Every structure is written in structure tokens, then in C-alpha cells.
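name: query_chain
kind: protein
chains: 1
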Amino acid sequence: MAVGEYLFPSMPPVAGVAIAAAGAGIKKPGRDDVLLFALAPGSSVAGVFTQNAFCAAPVKVCRAHLAEAEARYLIINSGNANACTGDSGYQNALTVCASVAAQMGVAQAQVLPFSTGVIGEPLPVAKITSVIPTLCQSTCEDAWERAARAIMTTDTRPKGATRQLVLDGQTVTVNGVAKGAGMINPNMATMLGYIATDAAVAADVLQKLVRESAGLSFNRITIDGDTSTNDACMLMASGQAGNAVISDTSSGDYALLRAAVIDVATELAQAIVADGEGATKFVTIDVTGGANHDECLKVAYAVAHSPLIKTALFASDPNWGRIVAAIGYAGVTDLDDEAVTVHLNDVLIVEHGGRAASYTEEQGQQVMNGERITIAIDLGRGAAQETLWTTDLSYEYVRINADYRT
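structure:
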């Protein structure tokens, strides 16, 4: 179940970024579940990761390797998270890295590992290492859809996005794939996102860019309020496009690249929401008129995480009282309810502390019957604003997560 139709885009190659996928039978036979990214020498890699205290072994290894060496390879498996697996899990992640390093003749620290799937189960190292020789010998630049499929878990469809732009007279490509459908409330700061460009970008600039782009995209989505142990968003820059190296965040070229990367990240983030576990509604929550961004986010998350609101959305029930209740308990100091307005799409439902005089139940019902709904809240306190994207909560969400391990 997913909201709306989705066609995986035609994605041009990114020079200096090669891909291979294979089936190791980690969870289900007959499907790709191990993915390799191979980067040209001199590439830069930056990332942001989950802030969950029980972060997975591959997250710990990845952070350590990024601090130690120039990354050349990313190895990702689905079907097993290698999380809450103690020192043996850490050593297993290192073993996978060592296998890639031995095949490709690089240092172990130049390999970054990632895993997604069931928490608490030992990583099936032998299954993964058995396909690594095939992966290393079969990389190509035009396997982006296969990459997107290889990292899927409860996703119903692969997710990709692409943009092209001109920098310094050279055509630059930005491609991205992501997975995620449940346990989605990233705080990076069980989704994985990989964005690659052939632009030449200094390492410190790339790190700033991945933080900014994740903050405006993957950190603005929530399906169920659960932050995974394995969240990661990686930005890779091969430097093969031939543009002058972007080393200044105040430059025009940085602004152009930043816009393209944020576009790709936002499209991927919204695709995750649309494919949320059991989702039947894609919901945008716009909070404006805040005294600061923090209180806008408090209100947005209160609405997005309310099970009463989410179940009303599933039922297409315009129960606006649940929305104002969530606004009221969000923790905004000295909130003036008389100043707050609430719209469903373009229908005014709340003003002056109560139901809008112009509002009718029929108007609200018409909005709620749609697949895409915007809840627009004006706090009437200032100029700050924030946007989140979320879903409803359906019977199917419960079924998927009740049956996840079986």
C-alpha cells in the first residue's frame, strides 16, 4: 500500500560512481539485498547519522572509517540491521569491510558499511562475503534502480531522484536513492539515503551540504515517531565533472549545487512518506507565525505524532478538535488560542479560538477524502515557519509491524 502512483525516474550516470547489486539470500531468496558503491580515487564522502543511543555497529564503524581514511567503497545490506549485536556485531561489520578491501586492494578503513533490517540478529557475514567478489567485478554506472531495490525492506517500491545543472561550464549530475517505510523519524543529525554527484567539492563543504540538505528533507519527515538505530544519509562527490573545486559556501556555484542536492533529498524524503507502511494519505503540516523555529516544530510534531489525528486521517474524518488539542499540548509558552488559525487545504476550520463561522462539515469531508492533505497552522506569534511531511495510521501499518519478523 502506498499513496499515489510512482514511476522510478530515468537516471543518468554519475561519472566516477559505479554500482553493483547481488542477492545473498539474507532474508528472502531471489532478490538483491547487497549493494556496492565504488568511487573514483579522490572522491569526497560526507554523512549524517542516527542519534539513537543504540546506534548500529555499521554506524559506529562508518563514523570511525570516515575519520581515518578517504572512502572508496560503500557496502550496504538489507534484511539484517546488525544493531544491538555487541562487539561481535562490530567485528562482523569490520569483516565485511575487510572482504571488500581485499578484493579491491584498498585499506579496510576505505570501506564504509551500512545495514538495514531486523534489529538484534547476528549479521550473516558468510552470505554477504560470498557475493562480494561478484559485486566487485560487476560494477557499472547505470544501475541506480537496481541499487534502490537492493536496499528495500518493507518498502513497496524503489525510490530515486535526479537533477542536472551547469557549474563552471560543465554539466553536473546529482542522483540519489533511499529506502524507508517504517521506523521513520530521522534525527540525524530505518532510513538510508545515498546521494552522489560528479561535482568537485571540498570535503568540509560537502559535510556542510549534507547536514543542510538532510536537515531540510530527511529530518522533516515522520511516519511513526520512531528513530531507527541505523539511519544514515551519505553524500558522495566524485569530482569527475571537470568543474573548479567548490570550496566556498558563499559562492554562486555552491548555491546552485546546494539547491540541486536539497531538491533530490526532498524528493526522496517525500517518496519515503508516500510509501509509509500502510499509508493511505500523504500529509503536509505547515506551521507558520511562530515566534521561533523550535516552537513551530513542536506544534508540527505534536500534530504529526498524534495517534488520534493519524487514525482520523485514515478514516477521512474531519475531526478538527483533535488538531487543536495537539496544538494546545505541544508546549508553546503563552500560546494565545484566539490568534491561532487552522486550515485543511484552503478550507478555514479554526479561528478566534473556535470553529470558523464559514466552516461546514461538508467542506472538511471533501478535503479529508483526498489522498494528499495539508494541515496549515498559523500561530499568530511571529515570522518563523516549518514544514513536516507525514502519513495516516492504518490497519495495514499494525499488520505489517505485527508480522515484521515472521
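note: Residues 17-274 form a domain with the L-amino peptidase D-ALA esterase/amidase fold (CATH 3.60.70.12).
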